[in-house]
Structure formats: C-alpha cells, structure tokens
Design goal:
By secondary structure, the protein is an all-alpha fold. The protein has helices at about 5-15, 30-40, 45-50.
Length: about 55
C-alpha cells in the first residue's frame, strides 16, 4: 500500500522531468539527460553556450 506522503513526493519528482530548459524555456529531450548527468536543467545548445561563455 502506498502512503499519501510517498505519492506526493513521487508527483514532485516527476514534475522536474518535464524536458523544459531553465534558460531558454524550450522543450527538448536533452534537458532530462543533462539533468541526470550534470544536475542542471539545460538543453544541449544552452549547455554548450554555458561551457564556451561561462558568465
């Protein structure tokens, strides 16, 4: 049986995996991949631009 608190935590965790970049606000599949790899919700183009121009 699932507790109510466990069910709420699961809903919060799945909301983070919405594939929307924090920088450009576009939906991209690479956002979830970068979140797992680096801990940041960035698409590939934003990740590359942050790598080249880190300011």
């Amino acid at each position: 049986m699932i507790d109510e608190t466990e069910d709420k935590n699961f809903k919060v965790d799945t909301e983070e995996l919405n594939n929307i970049c924090d920088e450009c606000k576009q939906e991209d599949e690479s956002v979830t991949q970068n979140l797992i790899l680096t801990g940041f919700k960035l698409c590939e183009s934003c990740r590359l631009s942050k790598t080249i121009f880190p300011l």
